[in-house]
């Protein structure tokens, strides 16, 4: 079972391309892009996002890959 931080709150699946949104939460890139195509709120809090820039979460992606390799 993967750590909760590795799971996208939108898809509830293990992230492969995690990005951080303005709310400080990480999401799978494709899922949050679909969300932001029709909404301007945080999927986690429901509050308005101050911007729609998505920053790659390289640290989280590395941690997920290391976890996957350790289980391979």
From TrEMBL:
* InterPro entries noted in UniProt: Ubox_domain, WD-SAM-U-box, Znf_RING/FYVE/PHD
* One record GO biological process: protein ubiquitination
The segment(s) forming the U-box domain are 1-72
Q: Which PROSITE patterns match?
A: U_BOX
Chain ranges passing through the membrane: none
Per its record, what are the GO molecular function terms? ubiquitin-protein transferase activity
Q: What is this protein called?
A: U-box domain-containing protein
Q: Output the lineage of the source organism.
A: Eukaryota, Haptista, Haptophyta, Prymnesiophyceae, Isochrysidales
